[in-house]
Design goal:
InterPro entries: AB_hydrolase_fold, Pept_S9_AS, Pept_S9A_N, Peptidase_S9_cat, Peptidase_S9A, Prolyl_oligopep/macrocyclase. Keywords: Hydrolase, Protease, Serine protease. Belongs to the peptidase S9A family. There is one protein chain. Strand 6 and strand 7 form a beta hairpin. An eight-stranded mixed β-sheet has the order 32-33-35-34-36-37-38-39, sandwiched between helices. Strands 3, 4, 5, 6 and 7 form a five-stranded antiparallel β-sheet that branches. A four-stranded antiparallel β-sheet has the order 8-9-10-11. It is of the alpha+beta class. Among the domains are: 312 residues, Rossmann fold; 90 residues. Helix content is 17%, strand content 34%.
Length: 676
Amino acid sequence: MNFPKTKKENIVDDLFGYKISDPFRWLENGEDAEVKKWIDDQNEATFSSFKDEEFGIIQKELAENYKYTGFGNPFLVKGKYFYTERGPDENQSVLYYKNGIDGTPIKLVDPNILNKTGTTTIDYWGVSLNGKYLNYGLSESGTEMAALYIKNVEQNKDIEKIPNCRYSSRAWLPDESGFFYTRNPKPGAVPKDEATLHTKIYFHKIGENPDNDEMIFGQDRPKDDILQISISPDGKLLAINAAQDWSANDLFIYDIENKKLKLWIPKANAKFIPIFLKDKVLIFTNYKADNYRVLYSSYENMFSNIEQLREFLPEEKFLLKDVYVTEDKILVEYVINVSSKVRIFNYDGKPVGDIPIPEYSTLWGMSTRKDEKEFFYSITSFTFPPIIYRYLPDENKYVPYRKIDNPINPENYVTKQEWFNSKDGTRVPMFIFHKKGIRQDGNNPTILYGYGGFADILNPYFIRSYVPWFERGGIFAIANIRGGAEFGKSWHLGGIKEKKQKSFDDFIAAAEHLIKNKYTKSDKLGILGASNGGLLVSAAAIQRPDLFKAVVSSVPLTDMVRFHKFGMALRWVHEYGNPETKEELENILKWSPYHNVKEDIKCPNFLFTTGEKDSRVDPLHSRKMVALLQSAASLNEVLLFTAKEAGHGAGKPVYKIVEGEALKLSFFAKHLGLKV
């Protein structure tokens, strides 16, 4: 294939004695006119490589599949039900509320009206204790740098706006007079690449100028702090969770009345998440418990030594993932062999029941309030989109509330979970999903998906964008590799930093399992990953180019020597290692995709996709990797698609989702032999 020409520069860094070539560093500057032209040329080459008819068929099917009514779990607040819903022809979800479960929907926030291009989205929202105020974040074009709005619900009127509140954590005072929130720096206050860092906590009083909001936490703190807050029921204490990685944090208490800050629980190489109840504090933790447990303390003794905290729920042999609280119940989500189970406890920690969840299914969300008995939850699997259930406390019954239309017949499909040995002998599970009647003869077009990072868990879920693949007989597999948290803290730590190669080994072993068991063969096997998963599939394909026919790497990291210099990626040195230390650089150089492409590599076919305004993983990673692979002696396709007015993926309008997913499916179909 004839690729657009890309100039090379003679740039070599000397890092701890290692001579590191970086011939495509000029592609790092996405604002440069020459780089913009290069991006446009790559997009043109990518679209010209597909047959218009086949791409059009898949794009049309996906567009029809996305013409459905989608909705989130309602939140009940003093008789009002708040929820989001997206109509079949809308690009973004709209926020509504109803007075009573059967009330008339009242529209509160509609991004589709605010921006006709569909690129304005609601990033987050929440309601004050008695439902008087709504606060919500709106961002543009995938930047995720939201402005935080405060709306009077009864008047349906925005009353205040606070800029630079990226995924802001908020906590209202019980009297609704104001709230605490996290905020990023004003433009120009810090270098542009650090705009998503330097998060601090402020207090905003309703009716006052946000410019005068008092900062109560963040001064002289690490710039890569990840901050989460929660407030006690009496409004006297604010808990501050300050973390720089995904398995540990410091926990502070701010005395609101006396404006005093105190370290509550030091990091201790563990995670501590407080849950305030009326008479006690629960602490969800992995301290001396890889699979997590729940401790508790009275308010009088909350500053006791960690060892003196009492156990509310012990560690189990499987992961305790999350805790939800209602007025009279504590709902605990466990993950057992990567499927969800929910147990119900009373406030004394005594088990009182379970929520029924089918095999190979996932709790997709739960909306509870500490002052309400009623709650909602949703369940999904490979075979059905999320179904919302409502708990009726007077009848002690769970009833289906709303269902999203299902474009497939679940009876036609089979879900399996198979285990395989990784390179070091570790047993790793994988889900395999396909139509019934598939023959294991090694000839099935197959996509293997993975992530393996940041303690994320790949549960079974409905993958709407791949319905055309499933319906045509393609196989889809998900490998639950190390770096995730499917089996607790040790599973996460077993695939990061100096052990990052274990993630890649697990993924490669998953591919070998699929081939060995004749689900597919190398010429029919594609791999798919996004973000950290994009790094995963890029590294796996470079290490084992013989094993895969096609690779789709979306919004990936690839240059792991310079990743920490761009945007919020500084936070990720705790996951990947710090290239500015010799020992960790040595490890990174062993697996960094950009630094392991050999001149004569015969790589698989690659499609990289990214968003021009991605504020999480800078698109420079995709650009540099594509340029490097295109310059190598390969006869296969290396394509790049950069979505305009788009970011990492969150909040992308439906028409952009359809375009991007149609490209990926067309690419896999073309190279793996799936008939369109």
